[in-house]
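Hey L., structure's done. Input below.
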Amino acid sequence: MGSHGAEEPLTAQPERDLYRDTWLRYLGYANEVGESFRAIVPVSLVWLSYGVATTYVTADAVDKGKKAAAANAHEKDRTTRVTVAVVDTFVWQALASVAIPGFTINRICATSLFLLGSMTRWPLPVRKWTTTAIGLSAIPFIIKPIDRSVDFLMDSSLRKLYSTEEKPSS
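Output:
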C-alpha cells in the first residue's frame, strides 16, 4: 500500500529462462561428468553424456530462436534475427558447454591418471576413482573462465558479422 491507500503497481518480474535459470542448465554439464567418469565407465556412457549435453544445447538454441521470432513477429528482418539468435546460442553453447569443457576435463583426468600412475603405487582402481574425483572437482572452477573466454572469442569473431545492433544473450 502506498501513502495514500492505493496499491502500488507490481514490478514486472523478468521472464525465467527455462534453459539458463532452472535445473535444466546442469544438463549442459553432462559431458564434463561423463569425461570425469571416463576411467571407470564404458566409453559408450561417456558418449551418451555428450548426447545429453548436445540435446540441451540444441534445445536452448531452438528456444532462443522461438523467443526471437515472437519478439520480432512483425519486423521485416525477423528471419535474420531468428537466425542470429539460433546460431549465436548454438555456437556459444557448443563451445562453452560441450567442446571446450569436455576437452579440458578430459585432459585434466588423463594427466592426473598418468601422474598418479607414475608417482604413486596406488592400485589402479584407487587411481581411477581419484582421477574421477579430480575431474568432478575441477568442473566448478573451469566454468566461468571458459564462459568468459567464449564470450571474448564470439565478440571478437562471429558476433562482428551480425547486422543486428544488440548482442544476443549467451
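Residues 1-8 have pLDDT under 50 and may be disordered. The longest helix spans residues 78-119.

-- N.
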